[in-house]
Design goal:
The complex is a heterodimer of chains A (302) and B (274). Chain A has 302 residues and is mainly alpha-helical. Chain A is built from 14 helices and three strands. Chain B contains 13 helices and one strand. The chains are: A mainly alpha (302), B mainly alpha (274). Strand 1 of chain A pairs parallel with strand 1 of chain B, so a sheet runs across the interface.
Chain lengths: 302, 274
């Protein structure tokens, strides 16, 4: 009896019919995926437990490489930078996107396709190209400093990417530029799916723009907010290209992030075990943050 | 309902963000067409006409002809391999039932959030051991594996949504699983497949870290890598640098403008869990 109930439950969950041939269809993809993604990840976990310079014989390190993530300031800093950058890479784009969506919820927009295409454009450009473009904007004689001088704020002008205090926020602004369009497009689409009647009902109840936003727009956009945060957080933590092309982690290590540290340690300073540990820790961080986001924002429906 | 003023403000803000989104793009364009001797970093109309020769110079002096060729080859192979493999696997995950299918599927989905940084180190040593670094394989194989995470996830959603009745009708007509897939479901699924193709195309074309690590010789450089090295050597030649950037971004931008709906769908769909 129990078996049939189980089969029935199973049938309800999975579609289709029993077909052992399914394995054959999956096999080619699985081989490539396992050989070039799953297996290397396993190797990374193993490497992270070793002291290895990439040349001589590796020696077991236990948890040394992970302990160093907390005790070694040059390893702690990149993680702190990455978390700080998430303000620029994730929080700001979502906040700006929400602001815009709140405005859009009150009017019908003509030319949506045009705005959507242009706002989303930064997402499709190679980050290397984005980096080259912004490097010239942030350069000592670049557009930003020119503009500051033009409005009489020349005293604020500085080599943004070479400044110990300002390099990290400057790289952050580039991330904001990349991520904001994505969030806007997502939220604009979401707002248009919220039934008009909800807004009319809210207005009937005498809700002002703020109450309308809090009671209708914000709850209505929950799923989109979760997606936007997931996408921007993952992209922000994975960020290597932008750092490499704009600052190479400098000045000093003021803009180093875990992604850059992996590259730097493994391929420039021969600390392969340590690099692997940074990579694995980054993976864990991404998992923890994305799961937290979907729990907090989406609710426990999943 | 909404006042004229509010409407104006809304369009004003949209216009403002449009300008912000376009400023760096226009800057690159104006620098790319500017004079090579100009010390301006752009944002002024090029003096003395458009300098198309910058592109020719970037092409020859920066070796971008070779790099574009490499990028085209690598991207074409990755996109083709990902498409075929993902369609096959997702078909099984979407319409068949067998023990372990859920676990296997989740194994693929993990790849959506697994950062390259956690793979690149062992991959480099593995491929070097196999004497495959500085070859197209080193660029193609890891990239295909990573694209499969999205491809399998995306195509499975399509196969799950495709009408049961169509599949059953095909079976009654005597089609086996293979013919059902290629004769019925794949032609019907062209929109879903083209979304996967453009997303994989963009990711592969723009990919940097793997290429940086796997390739040290000039003969196998892809365009983003070429641009990074070009900047290292010619950082003072803004016009050439910008022209090279335009050459790299152009293919993706053209496809994006033509198929923007497919792009946005795919990039957002990749993050939507069931």
């Amino acid at each position: 009896m129990k078996a049939t109930a189980l089969t029935r439950a199973y049938r309800r969950r999975a579609p289709g019919e029993p077909r052992a041939i399914g394995y054959v269809y999956i096999l080619p993809a699985l081989i490539v995926y396992a050989a070039f993604l799953l297996y290397p990840f396993g190797q990374s976990v193993w490497l992270s437990s070793q002291h290895w310079d990439g040349l001589t014989v590796a020696t077991p390190a236990g948890f040394d490489n992970y302990r160093a993530l907390f005790s070694d300031a040059s390893l702690r800093a990149p993680f702190l930078h990455a978390l700080l950058l998430l303000v620029f890479y994730a929080a700001l784009p979502v906040a700006i996107g929400l602001l815009l969506a709140a405005l859009m919820s009150r009017a019908r927009i003509r030319g949506m396709t045009f705005f959507r295409t242009v706002l989303f454009l930064p997402q499709v450009l190679a980050l290397i190209v984005v980096g080259v473009a912004w490097r010239s904007i942030l350069a000592p004689d670049g557009l930003l400093n020119d503009a500051l001088r033009a409005v009489g704020l020349g005293g604020l002008a500085r080599p943004w990417l070479g400044d110990y205090t300002w390099a990290l926020p400057a790289v952050g602004v580039v991330g904001t530029w990349v991520g904001t369009g994505l969030c806007m497009v997502l939220f604009l689409a979401g707002v248009q799916r919220i039934p008009r009647e909800l807004y009319e009902a809210a207005r009937m109840d005498g809700a002002g723009p703020l109450r309308e936003f809090l009671t209708v727009t914000l709850p209505g956009l929950r799923p989109q907010i979760a997606v936007a945060l997931t996408l921007t957080i993952v992209a922000g933590l994975r960020n290597f290209d932008l750092i490499y092309i704009t600052t190479s982690g400098g000045p000093g290590n003021a803009t180093s992030v875990p992604a850059y540290e992996v590259y730097h340690r493994a391929f420039e300073t021969n600390q392969v075990g340590s690099a692997a540990a940074v990579g694995v820790a980054l993976t864990v961080l991404i998992f923890v943050l994305t799961v937290t986001v979907s729990r907090l924002v989406e609710g426990r429906r999943a | 309902m909404t006042t004229r003023l509010e409407r104006t403000v809304t369009y004003g803000i949209l216009a403002l963000f449009t300008v912000i989104a376009l400023t760096p793009v226009i800057g690159i364009l104006s620098t790319a067409f500017g004079s090579q001797n100009s010390l301006d970093t752009g944002f002024s109309l090029p003096k003395g006409g458009l300098h198309w020769s910058n592109f020719a110079d970037a092409w020859s002096r920066g070796h971008f002809g070779t790099y574009l060729g490499n990028s085209v080859l690598v991207t074409a192979v990755v996109v083709a391999a990902t498409t075929v493999l993902a369609v096959l696997a997702a078909y099984a995950f979407g319409v068949m039932r067998f023990p372990g299918s859920t676990v296997l599927f989740h194994l693929f989905v993990i790849g959506l959030t697994l950062p390259q940084e956690a793979l690149v180190v062992p991959l480099y040593f593995d491929l070097r051991y196999a004497e495959l670094t500085d070859s197209y394989w080193a660029l193609i194989l890891p990239q295909t594996a990573q694209s499969l995470a999205f491809g399998v996830f995306w195509m499975r959603t399509y196969f799950r949504g495709s009408a049961r009745s169509v599949i059953e009708a095909a079976r009654i007509d005597g089609a086996n699983t293979w013919t059902t897939l290629w004769r019925v479901l794949v032609p019907m699924g062209r929109p879903a497949i083209s979304t996967m193709v453009v997303i994989t195309f963009m990711w592969t074309w723009n990919e940097f870290l793997m290429a940086l690590v796997m390739v040290s010789d000039e003969a196998h450089r892809t365009v983003p890598l070429g641009l990074a090295f070009f900047q290292g050597q010619h950082s003072s030649e803004a016009a050439l640098l910008a022209a090279a950037s335009v050459l790299i971004a152009l293919p993706v931008v053209v496809v994006y403008v033509a198929l923007q709906r497919r792009f946005i769908e795919g990039m957002l769909g990749g993050a939507v869990k069931e």
